[in-house]
Structures are given as C-alpha cells and as structure tokens.
Design a protein that fits this description.
This protein is an all-beta fold. It has a domain of about 45 residues: SH3 type barrels (Roll), CATH 2.30.30. The protein is built from no helices and 5 strands. The radius of gyration is 17 Å and the shape is globular.
Length: about 90
C-alpha cells in the first residue's frame, strides 16, 4: 500500500454557535523575536504564567526571551513555549 497525500485539503466541520478554532501563530525563535515583540505563552508550568497568556518581549537571547507577562510578572521563557502573536488588522 502506498502512502499518498490527499488531493483535497481537510477542513474542520463548522457547527452553528461554535466559533472557528484559532491557529497558533508561528513558533518563536531568536530570528523572529526582538525586544517589543508581542508573544503568546503556549506552555504549561505549575506556578508559571497561565497557558495562553500574552506578553511583550523585553530582552531576547539565544535560547530564551525575558517576557513581561503583565500581572503574571516577568519571566525567562524558552522559545519553544512561545508563539509570535499576530495583531488584528
């Protein structure tokens, strides 16, 4: 049996009254994150910021960013727990 790519893209069914699922933004890295970039925390760590919390990068380094998460405080967060937050147009 051959592995074939589907010819038609798969699309999620829409149900009345249910909002469309939001896709996370592109993964953060030292190449696309600089001071002032708005990011979304996608990780979970007991005692850490809430999953889905938004913050602003204050300082970016090679493997992690120092992020101001507002009421949650300032955190050193590895890039793999962050995604770049796309602003609404």
């Amino acid at each position: 049996m051959r592995d074939e790519e589907p010819s038609d893209p798969v699309e999620q069914l829409q149900m009345p009254g249910m909002p469309r699922a939001q896709r996370p933004g592109p993964a953060a890295s030292s190449q696309n994150v600089a001071a002032g970039t708005e990011v979304l925390y996608t990780g979970y760590f007991p005692g850490g910021p809430r999953h889905g919390a938004r913050g602003v990068v204050r300082r970016a380094s090679g493997r992690r960013a120092f992020v101001d998460m507002g009421h949650s405080g300032m955190w050193h967060i590895p890039y793999y727990f962050l995604s770049v937050h796309a602003r609404a147009a």
